[in-house]
Amino acid sequence: MAKIELNTFEFSDFEKAFDNAFNKAIKRAVENKLFPPKIGDIDLFSRANTAKKLCISLPTLHDWTLEGIIKAYRIGSRVLYKKQDIEDALILINPKFRKEGLSC
To answer: Does 1.10.10 match the CATH number of domain 42-89?
Structure first.
């Protein structure tokens, strides 16, 4: 068996780092199991509300969902969008020219 030597890292430092990471992972898993997120803690929007919020049409929202631009969730026949996923889909741009116009 080959011997691994880490010059800049003491084994005790590695043990501590591993223990910390392991303990945090276990703590998160236990907390999620004991106290799962409640549906009231998650802001959900219907297709119509999401399209209105993004100033787009329902067909465009459908296309963006199929392309993976925005994540959708299904429960029964309902399609819902999480507020965080809507915000994550937005990308900051810095236009060179400012165009005046009406927003939705």
So the answer is: yes
